[in-house]
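User: Could you check the structure of this?
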Amino acid sequence: MLAAMDVGSRAGRVRATLGDHGCDILVVTSLPNVRWLTGFSGSAGMAVLRGDDLVLVTDGRYGDQARAEIAAANVDATVEVGLSQGAQVEIVGRLGAGCRRVGLEAAGVTWARQREFATQAFADAEMVATAAIVERFRAVKDDGEVARLAEAARIADAALESVRPRLADGVTEAEFALELDTTMRRLGASGPSFETIVASGPASALPHHRPDQRRIVEGDLVVVDFGALVDGYHSDMTRTFVVGEPSATQRRLLDVVTSAQAAGVRAVRAGVAARAIDSACREVIAEAGWAEEFIHPTGHGVGLVIHEDPFLSRVATVDLEAGNVITVEPGVYLAGVGGVRVEDSVLVTENGCRPITHFPKDHACLPSPRTT
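Assistant: Sure, the predicted structure tokens are below.
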């Protein structure tokens, strides 16, 4: 049994900040934010956060589910159902009647939806574009959230341990990805966190390569980037393997990236600038002469969304907080040769961090593919 999440207190904490953002009410349209505030996991819904209450507006498919999930999460909220999108907008307008300033989530509202709210629901009110009001709270996980992230990571670790030997059997990238995804489901995940990445040979130099029908052969670097999904929460981990004996270049790639990742993890603690983690990884890779081959940010937050606040990059402006769960994932990618990425998810603490993912990093070398 996973630890309970403190969903019931969330709306009150967000509500207390609305005045700071120039809002009388907040219309939450981002589904991860709706779920975080209410416990509702459906695919259609809006949460209206007012001075004294929380209302979930959804369609006829989800009325009973929404009430049950809100009750299970111990959230003090009501549910209103509109059978069409237009009817739901009308409900939102009624809930906000008399408000002068209506907050909309700028990152999650299309221009068409904003015009719909402005003309049909709040013709006499000012629309306020808000930025990351809920996301700032979501970035700090409670014990129940950490438990779900850790369980997702445990399942992913076990699945990779189970299927890793198949890399030496001459399977295709697609076959290995399917076996990994299926094993995670068998172990209790509701699915993969995202489209599993299995990138072999020259394709390992493509950070987000989609697995295809290429067979994994002796001499390949193989990047495996994947995660499990548990109760809406994602895990994220990357390991890079070699089939057979690594070449000198492959061994150096593995050593440099593993060292860079360890330097980044050592730098993690509450109060440290997110960009400092990125710098710690880049310094190791730059010293090895591959600064230009590290072509993506170092990491990101993980939770109800696979990529969420805080982000770790050269231009990041936030400091880490205790309770953030972040990835540290440097990589080096040599066109025509291959690439290496090593990634762990960690929980930020006051004095450092605690690993969420645990699969060992000393499994880089695999036997040559078996022949028949």
